[in-house]
Amino acid sequence: MSEKTPSPNHGRRNFLKKTSFASMLGVWGSHEVTRIQPAPAIINTRPKQRDGLNIAVIGFGPWGREIADTIGRIEDANLAAICDNYPNMLRRARRNMPDVTTYGDVSEVLADDSIQAVCVATPTHMHKDIVIAALDAGKHVYCEAPMAHTIEDAAAIAKAAQAHEDNLVFQVGLPYRTDPQYRSVHNFIRSGATGNPVFARGQWNSKQSWRSVSSNRDREIAQNWRLDASVSTGLLGEVGIHLLDTAKWYLEVPPVSVTGFSSLAQWNDGREVPDTVQAIITFEDGSNYFINLTLASSFEARNEVYHGTSATIMLRDSRGWMFKEVDAPMLGWEVYARKDRFYKDKGIALVANATQLDAQAMKPWEDDPNAETPLWHGLSAFVENFVYGPYPAAAGYMQGYQANVLAIKANEAAVNNTKVDLDASLFELS
Protein backbone atom coordinates (compact mmCIF):
# COMPACT_ATOMS: atom_id res chain seq x y z
CA MET A 1 0.00 0.00 0.00
CA SER A 2 1.36 3.18 -0.63
CA GLU A 3 -0.21 6.03 1.38
CA LYS A 4 3.15 7.91 1.29
CA THR A 5 3.22 10.96 3.56
CA PRO A 6 5.72 13.46 4.17
CA SER A 7 5.87 24.77 -7.12
CA PRO A 8 6.83 25.06 -10.32
CA ASN A 9 10.58 24.73 -10.64
CA HIS A 10 12.33 24.84 -13.98
CA GLY A 11 15.60 23.64 -12.51
CA ARG A 12 13.91 20.52 -11.19
CA ARG A 13 12.21 19.83 -14.52
CA ASN A 14 15.46 20.33 -16.43
CA PHE A 15 17.21 18.00 -14.03
CA LEU A 16 14.65 15.27 -14.65
CA LYS A 17 14.81 15.74 -18.41
CA LYS A 18 18.61 15.77 -18.63
CA THR A 19 19.42 13.04 -16.13
CA SER A 20 20.61 9.86 -17.83
CA PHE A 21 19.36 6.43 -16.82
CA ALA A 22 22.70 5.59 -15.20
CA SER A 23 22.63 8.66 -12.98
CA MET A 24 18.91 8.26 -12.29
CA LEU A 25 19.75 4.89 -10.77
CA GLY A 26 21.65 6.73 -8.06
CA VAL A 27 18.95 9.26 -7.16
CA TRP A 28 16.76 7.90 -4.38
CA GLY A 29 15.36 8.40 -0.92
CA SER A 30 11.70 7.36 -1.14
CA HIS A 31 10.05 10.77 -0.68
CA GLU A 32 13.48 12.21 0.01
CA VAL A 33 15.33 12.45 -3.29
CA THR A 34 18.37 14.59 -4.00
CA ARG A 35 20.87 15.26 -6.78
CA ILE A 36 24.07 14.44 -4.92
CA GLN A 37 26.50 11.76 -6.06
CA PRO A 38 25.67 8.20 -5.00
CA ALA A 39 27.06 7.23 -1.63
CA PRO A 40 29.66 4.44 -1.66
CA ALA A 41 28.47 0.91 -1.09
CA ILE A 42 29.16 -0.56 2.31
CA ILE A 43 29.37 -4.31 1.99
CA ASN A 44 28.60 -6.14 5.19
CA THR A 45 30.05 -9.64 5.29
CA ARG A 46 28.24 -10.82 8.40
CA PRO A 47 26.10 -13.94 7.88
CA LYS A 48 22.43 -13.41 7.17
CA GLN A 49 20.06 -13.76 10.10
CA ARG A 50 18.04 -16.48 8.42
CA ASP A 51 17.39 -18.15 5.10
CA GLY A 52 14.59 -16.93 2.84
CA LEU A 53 13.91 -14.47 0.06
CA ASN A 54 16.72 -11.92 0.06
CA ILE A 55 15.11 -8.51 -0.49
CA ALA A 56 16.65 -5.08 -1.10
CA VAL A 57 14.67 -1.93 -0.33
CA ILE A 58 15.39 0.83 -2.85
CA GLY A 59 14.65 4.20 -1.24
CA PHE A 60 15.02 4.54 2.53
CA GLY A 61 12.69 7.45 3.18
CA PRO A 62 9.72 7.19 5.60
CA TRP A 63 7.85 4.56 3.60
CA GLY A 64 11.01 2.67 2.67
CA ARG A 65 11.82 2.42 6.37
CA GLU A 66 8.32 1.10 7.04
CA ILE A 67 8.82 -1.54 4.37
CA ALA A 68 12.21 -2.51 5.79
CA ASP A 69 10.81 -2.86 9.31
CA THR A 70 7.90 -4.94 8.02
CA ILE A 71 10.13 -7.32 6.06
CA GLY A 72 11.88 -8.11 9.33
CA ARG A 73 8.62 -9.54 10.72
CA ILE A 74 7.86 -11.84 7.79
CA GLU A 75 8.77 -15.49 7.79
CA ASP A 76 10.83 -16.57 4.77
CA ALA A 77 11.89 -12.95 4.16
CA ASN A 78 15.34 -11.52 4.73
CA LEU A 79 16.16 -7.82 4.49
CA ALA A 80 19.44 -8.17 2.62
CA ALA A 81 20.20 -4.63 1.47
CA ILE A 82 19.13 -1.00 1.55
CA CYS A 83 19.82 1.37 -1.32
CA ASP A 84 19.72 5.16 -1.08
CA ASN A 85 21.91 7.84 -2.61
CA TYR A 86 21.56 10.25 0.30
CA PRO A 87 24.38 9.64 2.84
CA ASN A 88 22.22 10.51 5.86
CA MET A 89 19.76 7.79 4.93
CA LEU A 90 22.51 5.21 4.61
CA ARG A 91 24.05 6.27 7.91
CA ARG A 92 20.64 5.83 9.50
CA ALA A 93 20.30 2.39 7.92
CA ARG A 94 23.71 1.29 9.17
CA ARG A 95 22.95 2.55 12.66
CA ASN A 96 19.53 0.89 12.92
CA MET A 97 20.24 -2.24 10.85
CA PRO A 98 23.96 -3.00 11.16
CA ASP A 99 23.63 -6.48 9.66
CA VAL A 100 22.20 -5.18 6.37
CA THR A 101 24.31 -4.35 3.33
CA THR A 102 23.95 -0.78 2.10
CA TYR A 103 24.38 0.60 -1.40
CA GLY A 104 24.46 4.11 -2.80
CA ASP A 105 23.63 3.11 -6.38
CA VAL A 106 20.86 0.80 -7.48
CA SER A 107 23.02 -0.66 -10.28
CA GLU A 108 25.10 -2.29 -7.53
CA VAL A 109 21.96 -3.84 -6.07
CA LEU A 110 21.00 -5.29 -9.44
CA ALA A 111 24.51 -6.68 -9.91
CA ASP A 112 24.42 -8.47 -6.54
CA ASP A 113 23.47 -12.08 -7.30
CA SER A 114 22.63 -12.76 -3.65
CA ILE A 115 19.69 -10.34 -3.84
CA GLN A 116 16.65 -12.05 -5.27
CA ALA A 117 14.00 -9.32 -4.98
CA VAL A 118 13.65 -5.56 -4.67
CA CYS A 119 11.01 -3.33 -3.13
CA VAL A 120 10.88 -0.06 -5.06
CA ALA A 121 9.96 2.76 -2.67
CA THR A 122 11.35 5.74 -4.58
CA PRO A 123 9.27 8.72 -5.78
CA THR A 124 6.63 7.62 -8.27
CA HIS A 125 8.13 9.20 -11.37
CA MET A 126 11.35 7.22 -10.90
CA HIS A 127 9.74 3.78 -10.75
CA LYS A 128 9.78 2.87 -14.43
CA ASP A 129 13.52 2.65 -15.13
CA ILE A 130 14.26 0.93 -11.84
CA VAL A 131 11.50 -1.67 -12.17
CA ILE A 132 12.31 -2.56 -15.77
CA ALA A 133 16.03 -2.81 -15.01
CA ALA A 134 15.32 -5.00 -11.97
CA LEU A 135 13.12 -7.37 -13.97
CA ASP A 136 15.73 -7.56 -16.73
CA ALA A 137 18.31 -8.39 -14.03
CA GLY A 138 16.17 -11.34 -12.92
CA LYS A 139 14.88 -9.79 -9.68
CA HIS A 140 11.39 -10.25 -8.29
CA VAL A 141 9.79 -6.84 -7.84
CA TYR A 142 7.42 -5.26 -5.34
CA CYS A 143 6.60 -1.80 -6.74
CA GLU A 144 4.86 0.80 -4.62
CA ALA A 145 1.61 2.29 -5.94
CA PRO A 146 1.06 4.14 -8.11
CA MET A 147 3.37 2.34 -10.50
CA ALA A 148 4.08 5.53 -12.48
CA HIS A 149 3.11 9.17 -12.92
CA THR A 150 2.04 8.74 -16.56
CA ILE A 151 -0.09 6.13 -18.31
CA GLU A 152 2.74 5.50 -20.77
CA ASP A 153 5.21 4.66 -18.00
CA ALA A 154 2.66 2.50 -16.19
CA ALA A 155 2.05 0.57 -19.42
CA ALA A 156 5.80 0.09 -19.92
CA ILE A 157 6.12 -1.36 -16.42
CA ALA A 158 3.10 -3.62 -16.89
CA LYS A 159 4.41 -4.94 -20.22
CA ALA A 160 7.82 -5.65 -18.70
CA ALA A 161 6.18 -7.54 -15.84
CA GLN A 162 4.00 -9.43 -18.31
CA ALA A 163 7.08 -10.48 -20.28
CA HIS A 164 8.63 -11.98 -17.14
CA GLU A 165 5.48 -13.39 -15.51
CA ASP A 166 6.45 -17.03 -16.08
CA ASN A 167 9.53 -16.86 -13.88
CA LEU A 168 9.41 -13.65 -11.80
CA VAL A 169 6.97 -12.34 -9.20
CA PHE A 170 5.74 -8.80 -9.78
CA GLN A 171 3.41 -7.21 -7.26
CA VAL A 172 2.08 -3.68 -6.88
CA GLY A 173 1.73 -2.00 -3.48
CA LEU A 174 -2.06 -2.24 -3.32
CA PRO A 175 -2.10 -4.15 -0.01
CA TYR A 176 -5.84 -4.02 0.61
CA ARG A 177 -6.20 -6.68 -2.08
CA THR A 178 -4.33 -9.08 0.20
CA ASP A 179 -5.65 -7.82 3.56
CA PRO A 180 -7.95 -10.48 5.10
CA GLN A 181 -10.52 -7.91 6.22
CA TYR A 182 -10.81 -6.29 2.80
CA ARG A 183 -10.88 -9.66 1.04
CA SER A 184 -13.61 -10.84 3.40
CA VAL A 185 -15.75 -7.77 2.67
CA HIS A 186 -15.13 -8.20 -1.06
CA ASN A 187 -16.47 -11.75 -0.93
CA PHE A 188 -19.39 -10.57 1.18
CA ILE A 189 -20.39 -7.88 -1.32
CA ARG A 190 -19.92 -10.15 -4.33
CA SER A 191 -22.11 -12.82 -2.68
CA GLY A 192 -25.05 -10.42 -3.01
CA ALA A 193 -25.54 -9.94 0.73
CA THR A 194 -25.76 -6.16 0.31
CA GLY A 195 -28.22 -6.37 -2.58
CA ASN A 196 -27.90 -4.23 -5.68
CA PRO A 197 -25.31 -1.43 -5.54
CA VAL A 198 -26.76 2.02 -4.88
CA PHE A 199 -23.64 4.17 -4.55
CA ALA A 200 -20.33 4.19 -2.69
CA ARG A 201 -18.02 6.78 -1.23
CA GLY A 202 -14.54 7.04 0.23
CA GLN A 203 -12.50 9.72 1.93
CA TRP A 204 -9.02 10.47 3.24
CA ASN A 205 -8.75 13.58 5.41
CA SER A 206 -5.50 14.69 7.01
CA LYS A 207 -4.28 18.08 8.25
CA GLN A 208 -0.75 18.25 6.87
CA SER A 209 1.06 20.39 4.32
CA TRP A 210 2.83 17.72 2.24
CA ARG A 211 5.76 20.14 2.18
CA SER A 212 9.20 19.38 3.62
CA VAL A 213 11.89 21.91 4.46
CA SER A 214 15.65 21.60 4.28
CA SER A 215 18.65 23.89 4.59
CA ASN A 216 19.83 22.42 1.29
CA ARG A 217 17.88 23.97 -1.59
CA ASP A 218 18.40 21.06 -3.98
CA ARG A 219 17.31 18.58 -1.33
CA GLU A 220 14.21 20.62 -0.52
CA ILE A 221 13.21 20.61 -4.18
CA ALA A 222 13.78 16.86 -4.38
CA GLN A 223 11.83 16.15 -1.21
CA ASN A 224 8.81 18.09 -2.47
CA TRP A 225 8.34 16.23 -5.74
CA ARG A 226 4.67 15.67 -4.86
CA LEU A 227 4.06 19.40 -5.14
CA ASP A 228 5.50 19.55 -8.68
CA ALA A 229 2.60 19.06 -11.10
CA SER A 230 4.96 17.84 -13.85
CA VAL A 231 5.73 14.64 -11.94
CA SER A 232 3.05 14.37 -9.24
CA THR A 233 -0.20 12.45 -9.54
CA GLY A 234 -1.57 14.53 -6.66
CA LEU A 235 -3.76 13.33 -3.83
CA LEU A 236 -5.86 11.15 -6.11
CA GLY A 237 -2.79 9.36 -7.43
CA GLU A 238 -0.50 9.14 -4.42
CA VAL A 239 -3.20 8.39 -1.83
CA GLY A 240 -6.56 8.05 -3.55
CA ILE A 241 -5.38 5.19 -5.74
CA HIS A 242 -5.96 2.80 -2.82
CA LEU A 243 -9.57 3.90 -2.40
CA LEU A 244 -10.21 3.94 -6.16
CA ASP A 245 -8.72 0.47 -6.58
CA THR A 246 -10.87 -0.92 -3.77
CA ALA A 247 -14.01 0.55 -5.37
CA LYS A 248 -13.15 -0.90 -8.78
CA TRP A 249 -12.36 -4.27 -7.18
CA TYR A 250 -15.52 -4.39 -5.07
CA LEU A 251 -17.96 -3.18 -7.71
CA GLU A 252 -16.44 -5.23 -10.56
CA VAL A 253 -17.96 -2.93 -13.17
CA PRO A 254 -15.93 -0.88 -15.69
CA PRO A 255 -15.72 2.86 -14.95
CA VAL A 256 -16.98 5.00 -17.86
CA SER A 257 -16.30 8.57 -16.71
CA VAL A 258 -14.85 10.69 -13.92
CA THR A 259 -15.83 14.20 -12.94
CA GLY A 260 -13.38 16.04 -10.75
CA PHE A 261 -13.12 19.12 -8.56
CA SER A 262 -10.17 20.71 -6.78
CA SER A 263 -9.14 23.71 -4.73
CA LEU A 264 -6.45 25.17 -2.48
CA ALA A 265 -8.32 25.37 0.81
CA GLN A 266 -5.39 25.70 3.21
CA TRP A 267 -1.88 25.57 1.77
CA ASN A 268 -1.81 28.49 -0.66
CA ASP A 269 2.00 28.60 -0.71
CA GLY A 270 2.72 28.67 -4.44
CA ARG A 271 2.20 24.96 -5.04
CA GLU A 272 0.67 23.69 -8.27
CA VAL A 273 -0.93 20.62 -6.71
CA PRO A 274 -4.37 21.13 -5.05
CA ASP A 275 -4.67 20.35 -1.34
CA THR A 276 -8.34 19.34 -1.65
CA VAL A 277 -9.87 17.18 -4.37
CA GLN A 278 -13.13 15.39 -5.06
CA ALA A 279 -14.12 13.06 -7.87
CA ILE A 280 -17.21 11.17 -8.97
CA ILE A 281 -16.52 7.92 -10.79
CA THR A 282 -19.49 6.71 -12.85
CA PHE A 283 -19.58 2.99 -13.61
CA GLU A 284 -21.12 1.11 -16.51
CA ASP A 285 -24.14 0.04 -14.45
CA GLY A 286 -24.94 3.67 -13.60
CA SER A 287 -23.71 3.57 -10.01
CA ASN A 288 -21.39 6.29 -8.71
CA TYR A 289 -18.40 6.35 -6.40
CA PHE A 290 -17.68 9.63 -4.58
CA ILE A 291 -14.16 10.26 -3.31
CA ASN A 292 -12.83 13.15 -1.25
CA LEU A 293 -9.24 13.79 -0.17
CA THR A 294 -7.88 16.82 1.64
CA LEU A 295 -4.81 18.12 3.42
CA ALA A 296 -6.87 20.87 5.05
CA SER A 297 -9.05 18.94 7.52
CA SER A 298 -8.58 15.77 9.54
CA PHE A 299 -12.16 15.12 10.66
CA GLU A 300 -13.24 11.50 10.15
CA ALA A 301 -9.85 10.62 8.63
CA ARG A 302 -10.30 7.67 6.29
CA ASN A 303 -13.38 5.57 5.68
CA GLU A 304 -15.23 3.82 2.88
CA VAL A 305 -18.96 3.15 2.61
CA TYR A 306 -20.71 0.84 0.14
CA HIS A 307 -24.48 1.31 -0.02
CA GLY A 308 -26.66 -1.54 -1.26
CA THR A 309 -30.40 -2.09 -1.46
CA SER A 310 -30.26 -4.69 1.35
CA ALA A 311 -27.37 -3.44 3.47
CA THR A 312 -24.55 -0.92 3.68
CA ILE A 313 -20.97 -1.74 4.60
CA MET A 314 -18.57 0.71 6.22
CA LEU A 315 -14.81 0.17 6.40
CA ARG A 316 -12.81 2.19 8.89
CA ASP A 317 -9.37 1.62 10.41
CA SER A 318 -9.30 -1.86 8.85
CA ARG A 319 -12.57 -2.70 10.57
CA GLY A 320 -15.87 -3.40 8.89
CA TRP A 321 -19.53 -3.10 9.83
CA MET A 322 -22.77 -3.98 8.06
CA PHE A 323 -25.94 -1.90 8.48
CA LYS A 324 -28.97 -3.87 7.33
CA GLU A 325 -32.13 -2.42 5.84
CA VAL A 326 -35.35 -3.33 7.70
CA ASP A 327 -36.63 -5.27 4.70
CA ALA A 328 -33.38 -7.19 4.14
CA PRO A 329 -33.53 -10.99 4.37
CA MET A 330 -31.98 -12.60 7.44
CA LEU A 331 -28.68 -14.35 6.82
CA GLY A 332 -28.66 -16.22 10.13
CA TRP A 333 -25.14 -15.58 11.38
CA GLU A 334 -25.74 -11.87 12.07
CA VAL A 335 -27.96 -12.76 15.05
CA TYR A 336 -24.87 -13.89 16.96
CA ALA A 337 -22.43 -11.27 15.66
CA ARG A 338 -21.17 -8.36 17.74
CA LYS A 339 -23.14 -5.13 17.35
CA ASP A 340 -21.68 -1.63 17.64
CA ARG A 341 -23.78 1.53 17.86
CA PHE A 342 -23.21 4.46 15.50
CA TYR A 343 -25.50 7.28 16.61
CA LYS A 344 -28.97 5.94 15.74
CA ASP A 345 -27.74 2.94 13.76
CA LYS A 346 -26.39 -0.41 14.89
CA GLY A 347 -23.56 -1.95 12.89
CA ILE A 348 -22.94 -5.67 12.72
CA ALA A 349 -19.20 -6.23 13.02
CA LEU A 350 -17.60 -7.95 10.05
CA VAL A 351 -14.39 -9.59 11.21
CA ALA A 352 -12.35 -11.77 8.88
CA ASN A 353 -11.06 -14.03 11.69
CA ALA A 354 -14.03 -13.76 14.05
CA THR A 355 -14.38 -17.53 14.51
CA GLN A 356 -10.78 -17.99 15.59
CA LEU A 357 -10.92 -15.01 17.93
CA ASP A 358 -14.18 -16.15 19.46
CA ALA A 359 -12.61 -19.52 20.20
CA GLN A 360 -9.86 -17.71 22.10
CA ALA A 361 -12.36 -15.51 24.00
CA MET A 362 -10.86 -12.39 22.44
CA LYS A 363 -12.54 -9.19 21.33
CA PRO A 364 -12.11 -8.80 17.57
CA TRP A 365 -9.56 -6.13 16.59
CA GLU A 366 -9.07 -4.94 20.16
CA ASP A 367 -7.20 -7.90 21.63
CA ASP A 368 -6.05 -9.87 18.61
CA PRO A 369 -2.29 -10.32 19.15
CA ASN A 370 -1.88 -11.46 15.55
CA ALA A 371 -3.42 -8.40 13.91
CA GLU A 372 -1.08 -6.99 11.26
CA THR A 373 -0.98 -4.01 8.93
CA PRO A 374 -2.14 -4.10 5.30
CA LEU A 375 1.51 -3.59 4.29
CA TRP A 376 2.49 -6.73 6.19
CA HIS A 377 -0.19 -8.70 4.36
CA GLY A 378 0.92 -7.29 1.02
CA LEU A 379 4.59 -8.10 1.53
CA SER A 380 3.73 -11.51 2.98
CA ALA A 381 1.76 -12.32 -0.17
CA PHE A 382 4.77 -11.25 -2.25
CA VAL A 383 7.09 -13.56 -0.31
CA GLU A 384 4.62 -16.46 -0.39
CA ASN A 385 4.32 -16.07 -4.15
CA PHE A 386 8.09 -16.47 -4.39
CA VAL A 387 8.04 -19.56 -2.16
CA TYR A 388 5.07 -21.30 -3.79
CA GLY A 389 4.69 -19.57 -7.17
CA PRO A 390 5.01 -17.72 -9.31
CA TYR A 391 1.26 -17.47 -9.75
CA PRO A 392 -0.90 -14.46 -10.68
CA ALA A 393 -0.64 -11.93 -7.87
CA ALA A 394 -3.77 -10.51 -6.24
CA ALA A 395 -2.26 -7.09 -6.97
CA GLY A 396 -0.42 -7.89 -10.18
CA TYR A 397 0.57 -5.78 -13.14
CA MET A 398 -2.95 -5.56 -14.62
CA GLN A 399 -4.58 -4.55 -11.33
CA GLY A 400 -1.77 -2.05 -10.76
CA TYR A 401 -1.99 -0.67 -14.29
CA GLN A 402 -5.76 -0.25 -14.27
CA ALA A 403 -5.74 1.42 -10.84
CA ASN A 404 -2.96 3.69 -12.08
CA VAL A 405 -4.96 4.72 -15.15
CA LEU A 406 -8.06 5.47 -13.09
CA ALA A 407 -6.07 7.52 -10.56
CA ILE A 408 -4.28 9.53 -13.24
CA LYS A 409 -7.53 10.27 -15.07
CA ALA A 410 -9.26 11.21 -11.82
CA ASN A 411 -6.41 13.59 -11.01
CA GLU A 412 -6.65 15.06 -14.51
CA ALA A 413 -10.37 15.66 -14.07
CA ALA A 414 -9.90 17.19 -10.61
CA VAL A 415 -7.05 19.53 -11.55
CA ASN A 416 -9.03 20.82 -14.54
CA ASN A 417 -12.40 20.78 -12.73
CA THR A 418 -13.96 18.88 -15.59
CA LYS A 419 -15.38 15.56 -16.75
CA VAL A 420 -13.20 12.96 -18.47
CA ASP A 421 -14.68 10.03 -20.39
CA LEU A 422 -12.98 6.69 -19.79
CA ASP A 423 -12.79 4.57 -22.91
CA ALA A 424 -12.44 0.85 -22.23
CA SER A 425 -9.26 0.75 -24.32
CA LEU A 426 -7.52 2.88 -21.68
CA PHE A 427 -7.53 -0.07 -19.30
CA GLU A 428 -6.09 -2.54 -21.82
CA LEU A 429 -2.43 -3.22 -22.55
CA SER A 430 -1.99 -2.73 -26.30
Task: Compose a concise summary of this entry.
This protein has 430 residues and is α/β, with parallel strands linked by helices.
Architecture blueprint of SSEs:
Elements: H1 10-18, H2 21-24, E1 53-58, H3 62-71, E2 77-83, H4 87-96, E3 101-103, H5 106-111, E4 117-120, H6 127-136, E5 140-144, H7 151-163, E6 170-173, H8 180-190, E7 197-205, H9 217-223, H10 234-238, H11 240-251, E8 255-263, E9 276-283, E10 288-294, E11 302-308, E12 311-316, E13 319-324, E14 339-342, E15 345-350, H12 354-359, H13 374-388, H14 397-415, E16 419-421
Parallel strand pairs: 1-2, 1-4, 2-3, 4-5, 5-6, 7-10
Antiparallel strand pairs: 7-11, 8-9, 8-16, 9-10, 11-12, 12-13, 13-15, 14-15
Q: Could you please say which CATH topology of the largest domain applies here?
A: Dihydrodipicolinate Reductase, domain 2
Structural classification: alpha/beta
How far apart are the first and last residues' alpha carbons, in Å? Answer: 27 Å
Low-confidence stretches: 1-50, 355-362
Shape designation = globular
- Number of β-strand runs: 16
In CATH, the homologous superfamily of the largest domain goes by the name Dihydrodipicolinate Reductase, domain 2
The total domain count is: 2
The CATH C-level name of the largest domain is: Alpha Beta
**How many strands, what sense, and barrel or not for the largest sheet?**
10 strands, mixed
What is the topology, as strand order, of the major beta sheet? 14-15-13-12-11-7-10-9-8-16
Q: What fraction, in percent, of the residue positions are helical?
A: 25-40%
Assign the CATH architecture of the largest domain: 2-Layer Sandwich
Radius of gyration: 22 Å
Total of helices: 14
Mean pLDDT: 86
